[in-house]
Amino acid sequence: MPPFVALAAALLAAPTGATAKPRVTANPNPIAFGETLTVRGRGWPVIEFCSRTVRLSLRSDQNAFRIGTDRVGLRGRLRFKWVPRRSEVGRGDWTLVARMRCESGKDGSPVPVRATTPLRIGSHNFVVARGITPKARWTLYARRARFGGFCTGVKTKPPDGSGFGPSGEGCGGGLRGEPLKVGLFYGRHRGTFAEGMASAEVAAVKVTFGDEQPVDALLLPSPPALGFEGRFWIASFPGLCLRFTAEAFDAQGTSLSRFEVPPRRGPPYGPRRRCLR
Predict the structure, then answer these.
(1) Choosing a second label site near 93 at 20 to 30 A (CA), which of 12, 130, 179, 253?
(2) Alpha-carbon gap, residue 253 to 249, rounded angstroms
(3) Which positions ≥6 away from 36 have C-beta within 8 Å?
(4) C-alpha distances in Å from residue 121, one per residue of 28, 33, 167
C-alpha cells in the first residue's frame, strides 16, 4: 500500500474532527507592518502517525521565511499570532504555508500534510487591475472594511505615470445578495470612472455614461486573498459625466440587475444630463 494511502486510511480511522481536510487562514489580510496576524487552522490530523506540531512559514517566488510553530489541539485546531516586521519580511504578496510531519503507518516513510493561504503584507489594499486611458493611468483596488464589507477605489495619474493624481473610494457592506454594486469617481483632467463589485453569476456589465453609447465594462477576478468569490468591474469616460447606468447580465444574456446613478427618484435638479468631454 502506498504511503499516502496508508495515511488516508489512518485518517479515516481517526476520531471525528481529524478527518476534515487540513486548512489554514490568516486575519487580517492584507496586514500592515506592526499589526498582529492571527493564523487559525482546523482539520489537522490527531493520530499517532503525525507529530501534532505545525510549522508555519512564508514563501514567495524568491524568498522563504519561517515565522514559528504551533501545536495542534485534540480537536485538530491551532491558533498562532505573529507580527510582521519590515526588517524581517518584504512588502508584497506571500503564501502562508502550514506543514505537519506525518509518516506512513506501514513503513514509517514521510507523508507530510500541508495547507496554504495567500497573504499580502505591508499594504491595506489589493490591486485588482491597472490600465491606461488617453488621459490617465488608473489603478482599481479593494480591501476589506474594518467593520465588515468591502472598500473599492480608483487611483489615477497622468498617462506618463509621473507625479500624483486624484483618487477616490467608497465602502459598504458588499453585495448583500445583489448581483451588482456600483460606485462613481471623477478626477479633474483624468476622466470619470464607474466601478464596483459583481456576483459570480455575472458574465458581463454594460455601462452607459449620460446619453453616450453603451460600453462593455472590464470584468475582473477578485484577488484570492481578499476572500470575495465574485468579481470587480470598471469602465471609464474621458471627461466629466456624473450620470450613468450599469446593467449586469448572466452568461445567457439575461439581465440580472440595473442601476441608475443618480436614481430616477432623486431631485430633478441633480447632476447634469449631458456628459462633457
Answers:
(1) 179
(2) 5
(3) 81, 82, 83
(4) 10, 7, 22
Q: What phi and psi values does residue 180 have, to the nearest 5 degrees?
A: -140, 145
pLDDT for 118-164, tens place per residue? 988 987 788 899 999 999 999 999 988 767 788 999 999 999 988 88
Residue 13 has what DSSP assignment? H
Q: Is this model's pTM higher than 0.85 or not?
A: no
Residue 105 zone, left/alpha/beta (φ > 0; ψ -120 to 50; rest): alpha
Q: Is 174 buried (19+), middle (13-18) or exposed (0-12) by CB count in 10 A?
A: middle
Which amino acid is it at 95? T
| 3-class SS shares of the chain: helix, strand, coil, % to 5 | 5, 50, 45
Query: Biggest alpha carbon distance in the chain?
Result: 80
Each residue of 138-147: pLDDT tens digit? 999 998 876 7
**Residues forming a β-bridge with 50:** 102
> For the chain, which domains are there?
3-121 (2.60.40.1930), 126-261 (no CATH)
What residue ranges in the chain does DSSP mark as E strands?
Answer: 23-27, 37-42, 50-59, 64-71, 78-82, 92-102, 113-121, 126-132, 137-144, 150-157, 167-172, 180-187, 191-198, 204-209, 215-216, 218-221, 231-237, 244-249, 255-261
For residues 101-116, one letter each, b for 16 or more C-beta atoms within 10 angstroms of the residue's C-beta and e for the rest, the string is ebbbbeeeeebebebe
Q: What is the percent of the chain with per-residue pLDDT over 70, rounded to a whole number?
A: 88
Q: Is 267 exposed, middle or buried (0-12, 13-18, 19+ CB in 10 A)?
A: exposed
* Cell matching residue 44: 489537522
